Amino acid sequence: MEWNEIFDVLLLRDYNTRLVVICTLLLGAACGLMGSFLLLRKRSLMGDTLSHATLPGVGLAFMVSVGMGLSDKSLPILLFGAAVTGVLGCWVVLFIRNNSRVKDDAAMGIVLSVFFGAGVVVLSLVQSMPEGSAAGLESFIYGKTASMVKGDFQILLIVTASVLLVSVLLFKEFRLLCFDESFAAAQGWPVRWLDVLLLALVTLVTVAGLQAVGLILIIAFLITPAAAARFWTDRLDRMLILSAVIGALSGWLGASVSAFFPRMPAGALIVLIAAVCFLVSMLFGSVRGVVVRFFRQETLKRKVGRQHLLRALYEILEAESAEGQAVEIRPVEFRQVRGRRTWSDAHLRRYVQQAYEDGLVRALDREVITLTDAGLMEAEKVTRNHRLWEIYLIEYADVAASRVDRDADTVEHVLGERMVATLEAKLMQLREAGSSGVPASPHPIRPGD
Amino acid sequence: MNAVSKEQIHQAPAVSGENHPLLVRDLTVAYHRKPVVWDIDLAIPEGRLVGVVGPNGAGKSTLLKACLDLIPSTSGEVLIFGEPYKKQFKRVGYVPQRESVDWDFPVSVLDVVAMGTYGQLGWFRPVKKRSKALALQALERVGLADYANRQISQLSGGQQQRTFLARALAQDADIYFMDEPFAAVDAATERAIVEVLRELQRRGKTCLVVHHDLSTVAEYFDWTILLNMRVVAAGPTDSVFNDENLRKTYGSKLSLLSEAADALMRSR
Predict the structure, then answer these.
(1) CA of A400: which chain B residue's CA is closest?
(2) A265 and A139 share a domain?
C-alpha cells in the first residue's frame, strides 16, 4: 500500500474504486441533510425502525422478480420492495401508538425486531432457491460497496439531487415543522403531509444507502453527521450544510479506506469515520464543544479574578489616599486584600501570579502586592467600569438585562459616551448628597488612552 | 353587547347579520374516547378581550385547540368570522404554551418571530427582508428588539413567552388565541403582555386568552368564559364573573377561591 495508491483512490483517479467513492460521498451528503431534519424532528428511532423493516421487502421483492422470470438481481425492484416494507413498518408503529397504550419506544422496538426477524426468515428461504445464493442479498444487511454498479450511481445521484432540491425549496416549512408542529398546523400547513414527505425522503435515502452501508448502520450515517454539526453552529442553515459536508467526508474517506481492506465491511468503516468526526466535534466544536467550553470558562475565570484583584487593590489604595488626591501606588499587604474578598490564600496567590505575568504588579513578594503603573491604570479603568455599571443597573433596571455587558472593555463601548456622562454626573450627585458606599468614579480615562 | 343566549347561537347566521369572530356550536371534544368538553356554545363579539377560566382539567386548552382544528372534535362546529377554520388561517393568530417547543432548537429569536409571516409567504418562498422587518417590528412591540439575534436557548421564561407573542403579532391576525400566556412569567413580562393585549383591542382585534389567575380576570378581560367541561357562563365580565358562577365553576369546596372572588367583588 503506497502513498500514491492511496491518493489515487482518494482523488478518484483509480478507475475501480472511483464509482464506489463517489457514490458513498453522495450518499453521505444526502444522509447529512435528511439526518438533520430527522434529528431535529426527534424521529431518529423511527429511522432505525424503517431501515430494519426493509429486510423482508428485499427478500420478497427478489422472490417476486424470480417469479416474474428475471434471473438477475434487479436493483430497482429490490429497492422498491425495501421501501414498501420499510414504510409499512413505520405505519405499523403509528397504528400501535394510536390504537393501544404501548408507547413509542416499545412500539418501535417491537416492529424493528419483528420485521428484521421476518426478513432473516425470508432471506433463508431465498438461499434455498437456486438463484438465491448467487444474489448475495445478505449484503443489504452489512453493506457491500464492492457490488455497487452504475445503477447505484444513477440512483444516488437522483436521490441526493432530490433531497437537496426539497431541502432548499421547503427549508422554512421543514424548519417550522421541526420547531413547532402545533403552530405550523394552526397556521394552515398540512403537517401530516409534510411529515409524510420527510419520511419519504428518509426512506429514499435509507434505501439508496442499503448497498453501501447496510441496513444496520444506515441510521448511524443519518444521525452522526447531523449530531456532529450541532456542535459547530447555532443556525439551522449552517447545520444542514455542515452536516452534509461531514457526511460526504465520512463517505469519501470511509469508502477510500475500505478499498484497501476489501474484507472489512465498508459500512462499518464509514460509520467509524463519522463517529470520529462526531467525537472531534463534541470535544472541539467551536460553539458547543466540551474542550472549547472548558477553556472559555477558564479564560473567563482568569479575567474575572484579575478584575476583582485590581479593584480590591485600587479601593484599598483609594481609601489610604487623601480626599481629592490622586491615588498613589503603595505596597498592599496580602492580609488586607484577603480581607476584602473571600479568597483562599492559594487563589489569591494565583491571581497575583497571573497579574505579574500580565505586567500589572511588580516583582513577586510573599508579603505585599505592588501595582505597576500599567497596573494602576488598568485598576482605575476596572473600578470605574464597575461603578458605572452599578449605577446603570440602579437607574435603568428595566432595560439593563439586555444592555449590560460586563465583558466590554469600557462602558462607553456599550452605552456610548453621552450615557456615560449622564451616569458619571449621577455618581457625583450621589457622592455630594452624602450617600455612603457610592464613591465617585475615579479620574475618567478616555477611550483611546 | 350582552351575553348571547343558546337559541341565538344556534340560529346565529340567520339572526344576526354580523359575523362573530368566534362562533362555537354544540362542540364536543373527546380525548382517548372520554369527552373532555361537551355541548359548548359560544358567540364572541368583535373587539373583546376574552378570558377563559376554569379549574385544572376543565378543558380550557382543549377548547382552544379544538377551535384551531389542532385536535379533532367529536361533534359540533367552529366558525371564525362565519367560515370554517380552514378558510380563515390568515385571520387567526396563535400563541401556544411554552412547553410545546424544544427551546434548544438551533434558531434565533428573530427567526422564530419571522415564522409568523410564513402564512403570508406561502409555499417555497424563502424568508427575506420583509419578513425579517415585520418580525423586528413585532419584537419592538413586546420589548425584545435587543434580543433579535440571540439563540432561543438563552431566553428566560418571560422572554420566551414574549417571543411567542411577537410571532403571533407578526401574523397580523384579526382574532388571537392564546394558551396560558401569563403562566409563570415575571411581573414586567405580565405588564408587557397586558399592554399588547390592550393595544390589540384598541385596534379592533379580538383575543381569546386561557387564563389561570382569578385575581386578575376582572382587571384584564372585558369578557369572560367560565368553563368546567361545559360552559358555566359566558358574557361581559361585569355580569358573569360573580360569586355564584365561580362556585358553579370551581365547586363550593374550593372556599379559598370563592373567598378570593368575594374579596374582589367587594373591593370593586
Answers:
(1) B146
(2) yes
d(CA B28, CA B36): 8
A73-108 pLDDT, tens digit each: 778 889 999 999 999 999 999 899 888 888 888 999
Q: Are residues A306 and A158 in the same domain?
A: no
The whole model's pTM is what? Answer: 0.86
Measured between alpha carbons, how far is residue A296 from residues A287, A288, A405, B181 in Å? 11, 11, 16, 36
A347 and A201 share one domain? no
Q: What is the CATH number of the domain that holds A351?
A: 1.10.10.10
Last residue of a domain, one of A231, A265, A285: A285
Q: Is A85 in the same domain as A23?
A: yes
A150, amino acid identity: K
> Is A440 a member of any domain?
no
| Chain B CB contacts of A235 below 8 Å | 106-108
- pLDDT tens-digit map of A389-417: 888 888 887 777 777 777 777 788 788 88
Inter-residue contact B23 to B9 (CB < 8 Å): yes
CATH architecture of the region B6-267: 3-Layer(aba) Sandwich (3.40)
CB within 8 Å: A169 and B69: no
Is A183–B115 a contact, with Cβ atoms under 8 angstroms apart? Answer: yes
Test B68 with A186 for CB contact under 8 angstroms.
Answer: yes
| Residue A215 and residue A321 in one domain | no
**Looking at the predicted structure, is the pLDDT value of residue A312 above 60?**
yes
- For A404, phi and psi rounded to 5 degrees? -65, 130
Decide: helix, strand or coil at residue B188.
helix
Closest by alpha carbon to B37, among B10, B12, B66?
B66
The residue written with cell numbers 453621552 in the block is A418
Nearest to B217 by CA among B241, B186, B235, B239: B241
Q: How many domains does chain A have?
A: 2
Domain containing residue A128: 3-285
Residues A187-222: tens digit of each pLDDT: 999 999 999 999 999 999 999 999 889 999 999 999
Tell me the percentage of chain A whose pLDDT exceeds 70.
Answer: 95
Instruction: Give the per-residue pLDDT at A2.
Output: 78
What was the pLDDT predicted at A238? 96
pLDDT at position A173 over 90 = yes
A248 and A365 together in one domain:
no
Which CATH number do you get for residue A274? 1.10.3470.10
Confidence band (pLDDT; 50, 70, 90) for B103?
A: very high
Indicate the pLDDT class of residue B19, thresholds 50, 70 and 90. Answer: confident
CA distance A156 to chain B (A): 24
B 123-142 near A (Cβ less than 8 A): 123-127
With CB atoms and an 8 Å threshold, state whether A185 touches B69.
yes
Mutation for testing the B interface, residue in A170, A187, A242 having most B CBs under 10 Å: A187
Interchain pair B89, A188: CB under 8 A? yes
Chain A residues touching residue B177 (CB < 8 angstroms): 186
Task: For residues A268 and A329, state if they share a domain.
Answer: no
Establish if B106 touches chain A: CB-CB under 8 angstroms. yes
Task: With CB atoms and an 8 Å threshold, state whether A173 touches B115.
Answer: no
- Do A160 and A65 fall into the same domain? yes
